[in-house]
Design a protein that fits this description.
mainly beta, 8 strands, two-stranded parallel ribbon
Length: 93
């Protein structure tokens, strides 16, 4: 069954999609710093991230300084477990 999942990589990339396993989001050479689930809050125009990956654990936000987010999410807020990602700078690719 497919689920909306995300991972963050050591290089700071947010990889997001609807997949079977979190590892399906990784590209060759990626090292994963955790992951979880996502949904879009249309009322607040925000990408809501939550939970943890069974394989990689909770996202280790403290290990990245810049989160590289896909261009299609530009203009949206990003929250993890209901809190803004204040300690991480966001750039788009």
């Amino acid at each position: 069954m497919l689920h909306p999942k995300f991972v963050i990589t050591r290089a700071g990339y947010l990889r997001i999609g609807t997949v079977h396993m979190h590892r399906d989001l990784l590209q060759p050479g990626d090292r994963c710093l955790g992951g979880g689930y996502w949904e879009i809050d249309y009322v607040d125009n925000c990408l809501e991230l939550s939970g943890r990956s069974y394989d990689y654990g909770e996202p280790r936000w403290c290990e990245i300084t810049t989160l590289l987010v896909p261009q299609s999410y530009r203009g949206m807020g990003i929250r993890y477990e209901g809190k803004e990602l204040a300690t991480v700078r966001v750039r788009y690719y």
